[in-house]
Amino acid sequence: MAIEKLLARIEEDARKEIDEIIKAAEGEAKRIIEGAREEGKKEAEKITKKGKKEAERARDRIISAAKREARMMITNAKEEVIQQCLEIIREKMASLPSKEYKKIVEDMVKDAIKEGGDYVLFYSRKEDKKIAEKLNIDVEGKIDAIGGVVLKAKDGSKEIDLTFDFLLERKKEEIRIMIAEKLFENVD
User: Fold this and answer.
1) Tens of pLDDT along 33-76?
2) What's the angle, vertex CA 106, arms to CA 161 and CA 174, rounded to 5?
3) Which residues form the domain of 79?
4) Same domain assignment for residues 66 and 102
């Protein structure tokens, strides 16, 4: 019986030790799980913050690209309106009434030849021939232009382009700025 008591006591001590080991293991497992849980939360927060920052950057890029696209569309629309205005000006110049046209071209020719010299005139409209006749300038030939004339010195030393096409092209930037200021002063 002493052996049975001894065995019972060993068994009881072993159970106590096993219970303590299990308790310690459970406590360690709980601590490890809590640590992992905390680490997981921190990692999740980090990933969430990183995701938010990336989303904000992506949103900012998209907004920036959309603003650039909008500015480009506005610029293109303004350019189209300016081009239409320039075309209207060109059409108006091409269709000036005869009396008004003659006065403008005659004044330009008088101003151009006031320094003197012998010139020949290249015309774009029939009215130009009458102006040349009136100012005693020889007519040399026809040019392709919406209006105006080209004067050439008889000795070939000088050419004065008074065509509406040339004048419009020369003043194009100035006219574009003026159109833009008038049409788009309150638009942005």
Assistant:
1) 888 888 888 888 888 888 888 888 989 899 999 999 989 998 89
2) 50
3) 1-95
4) no
User: Distance between CA 47 and CA 58 in Å, rounded?
Assistant: 16
Q: Of 166, 174, 167, 179, which Cα lies nearest the Cα of 84?
A: 179
Q: Residue 152: which of 183, 125, 112 has the closest Cα? A: 112
Q: 151's torsion region: left (phi>0), alpha (psi -120 to 50) or beta?
A: beta
Half-sphere exposure (CA, 13 Å, Cβ side) for 87?
6
Q: Which structure tokens are listed for 137?
A: 């300038």
Q: Do 76 and 163 sit in the same domain of this protein?
A: no
Check if the beta carbon of residue 113 is closer than 8 Å to that of residue 159.
no
* In contact, 168 and 147? CB cutoff 8 Å: no
Residues 106 and 40 in one domain: no
| Per-residue DSSP letter, 150 | E
Of 95, 115, 131, the domain-final residue: 95
pLDDT tens-digit map of 65-116: 999 998 999 889 889 999 999 999 999 999 999 899 999 999 999 998 887 7
Number of folded domains that form the chain: 2
**pTM here?**
0.64
177 CA to centre of own chain: 18
